[in-house]
Amino acid sequence: MERDLTKICAYALERLRFYGADDADCIVSRSHVDEMNVDAGEFSLLRSIYNASISMRAIKDQRKGVISINKTDEISIDEAAKQCVANAAAADEDDCLSIAPVLGNADFTFGLEEPDRDRFFDRIREYLDDVHTLYPKVLIEQLIADFGVWTACFGNTNGVRFTKRGGYYSLSSMYSAHDGDKATSFNSVGMDFVSLDRKLIELGDQKQMYELCQRELEAAPYNGKFTGIAVFAPSCLDDIVDTAIHSFTGGSAILDGTSPWKDKLGQQVASEKLTFRLIPIDERIVGGERFTSEGYPTENCTVIENGVLRCFTLSEYTARKTGNKRCSTLSGCSEVVAGSRSVDEIIAGIERGLLVCRVSGGEPAGNGDFSAVAKNSFLIENGRVTRPVTETMISGNLADMLMHITDISRETVCDGSGVAPYVAFDGVTVSGS
After folding, report:
1. How confident is the model at residue 41 (pLDDT cuts 50, 70, 90)?
2. pLDDT of residue 2 exceeding 60
3. Is 0.70 topped by the overall pTM?
4. How many Cβ atoms sit within 10 Å of the Cβ of residue 3?
């Protein structure tokens, strides 16, 4: 299949050149996913999904045209290439446009070639039985389990060529707890994996999340307000840390000059306890990026090291626009490096706070101000996780919160696409009805 994609990519580049592109690049992708669905505890769907796509970019007279199609026959490619170059001719001139140089072409493989379908089905059935037996008040409202194989080829007119092929299992569960007339807010868990040697209920932190879900049946509105420590569980840590990194170091924020960190490379922007890395080629990541959408080989990258901002997360284009360095990956596969104390020790030192397991809210303001609803959350009182609460708002400023991290747990959860611990932030305002 890789050879077929390589030929398709080469043909698309030839047609882009034929219609007048000075430089061009192209990504050809295919996927095959076998999916099982479970609704309200019963198997409801079994299907196979096939997708194919081609994305082309043409540069002509320092003007860019792009186009994407979901057909791979030569007639469709020819028409798309012609339109892509026409789009470039109609665009504005931009002297920062470029394509990647050859830095070492490669063919990448990862994960599995084929699934063990029978064993996967048995593991899913076992998983449903385990949840029902261990957490009888938890209802799996919907479960999606699949095995997918993804192949892709990138090429450009400089001679860059990358291919990748790999497959892995995925599990996504949406659940809630029920007891008579009582019901909790829904929550969800997801993970990617390549081995079926362990029970699926053992992966990640599902056991703890299901146990907390049952406790939520006694949740009541919180009547009060305080500013203190919020401990974010691994399941929702990206709502704070990843969102802040994207908002403050990403291309749009740096290009527009709206980031509060725009002039802080090499300076402290967070607590020295925080080290944040992008790790798409880490062995713990199941299907991470191998080459960027611009045609550069991917490398892991440390964005924040002991609180110091080491790089912005910029593409080659935004790096050229802003006079900064390109980030070696724009993958969403991230790690917050673990601390030295257990989460129990961290909570034991909190007199008044909130354990947050899910957040519902919009994007933060440009300066990092945010307000959101803390879902599936529990009060921390006198060093203990006590009662579950509803109708509870949390608010603060992401930049300030990163500067006021009081602790990071040594326990981490890896879901196959990222690694996260528990992180305690001071200065969070908690308010109820």
Report:
1. confident
2. no
3. yes
4. 9
